[in-house]
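Researcher: Next entry in the queue.
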Amino acid sequence: MADAATIFRIALVGGEEFCKEVLEKYLGARKVNDFAARIVAVADRDYQSPGMVLAKKLGLIALEDYHELYNPQHDIKALLLMTPDEAILDDILRTKPISIRLVAYPLSRLFFRAIDAEHQKLRARNEEIETILNSIQDVIIVISLNMEIQEINQSFLDQMGYTREEVVGKKCRDVFQQRNCPCDISMSGCPLNRAIEERGPSQQILTRMDRDGETHHLDVKIFPVWDKEGKISKFIEVSRDISDTKKREEEMTRRLEKMVEDRTRELKNTHTKLIHQDKMASLGKLSASVVHEINNPISGILSLVMLMNRMMEEGKLQRKEEGQFKEYLQLMETETRRISRIVSNLLAFSRQSKMEFGNVKLNQLIAKTLFLNANLLRLHCVKVEEDLAPDLPDLVGSEDRLQQVFVNLVSNAAEAVEAGGGERLLRIRTRYLPEKKSVCISFADTGVGINKENLPNLFEPFFSTKKKGKGVGLGLSVAYGIIQEHDGSIHVQSEEGKGTTFTIELPLKMAQQVFQP
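Model: Structure for this entry, 517 residues:
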């Protein structure tokens, strides 16, 4: 901005079309640049000449007698002749003060033509730049340091539904957010503030509303423009509407979530089926092993019943035989209760119930499992060594599911020990880990062991190291899933020819109890 004391004040003498043309070009240039030399007055005898009419409209000094321009109060520094009248030129040369300079009509015309030629070039260049900017599909906005919109391209108008008059000169917050409240300079969400803070370009994904209130998602880049003193003078914003891309991403996300949900449901159903298949397989093994256990007492009971019937048919029941008769009845009761316990355990193991969580006494559950597998262990000549911690606290879990895990591990150990051919031993150990608020159970056998290459795949469904027909590879996979449901962990250590140890760690209380079938 030019200082008022340093402004070079110019007056035009002659108000014809040339004068009007000069004023119009001067005003157009003034909108772009603030010149130190300014046209402040026009003088012409014809008060209705085009130059005088425009001068009065613009608020300039308009005088009929150019001699009044000599008055010091007007502070005129130079006169530009807009008329070719030689008499006026001679008169001004003779009468003007020496402090006022004079530019004759031919020279004024020459300067104007040169200036006009440059103006035309500049105008053509501006139109070319404007055409280029308007042909760019990205939105381009020029914003001043006080957050006012100075310029926009056609893409902005088309995209946001505004006219140029509704946007240029307005605060960006009033256009973008449709709210008339001052921006907080500390507002981190504003891309202009971020460019100021980082003293460089910034980029953000923003949500803005158009003239009709419709929301647009924009990828906004802000480029600060620096002046000669190294200060930010304005900002250039380049943004691209990504609303369609955003919608496609949201739709893709919804589809993926639906696919994940469907897949999770399928996996859950498959897992339930695996548990059922493994339970049936385990139940088959148990049934085969306890058949002999049940047959023995049944055969004994049958023999006693037949003996007692024969004694009663003879009709002679002596007193000494009454004691024997009573002993037979007590033996039959004992064997019947034994059968009842075996059958009850089998029914408890095979029933299809919801996973119900409650307090589990781990040592008792292990004892129950060993009782259920007693005949299986005896058939395989497996000796069991128990090292159960007496101070073991109760844990929260599903007794039915945990028993399924233990049955599977005991059954696998019995088969591995028999195949090993050496010492047939299964060590079961329980410990309380107070620092972790958990319990640890280990099943260590002296069987054939597991090959190192097979260890990583041991818990995968349908992977089995047994001979064909001996197993389907579900047991350990289901066991792994059950332990995971209890927020626990199961690990295996094995060495070929020396045996295998399965170690289970279970928290006393799960992070989240899940009730599921």
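Model: The chain has a mean pLDDT of 80.
Researcher: Noted, moving on.
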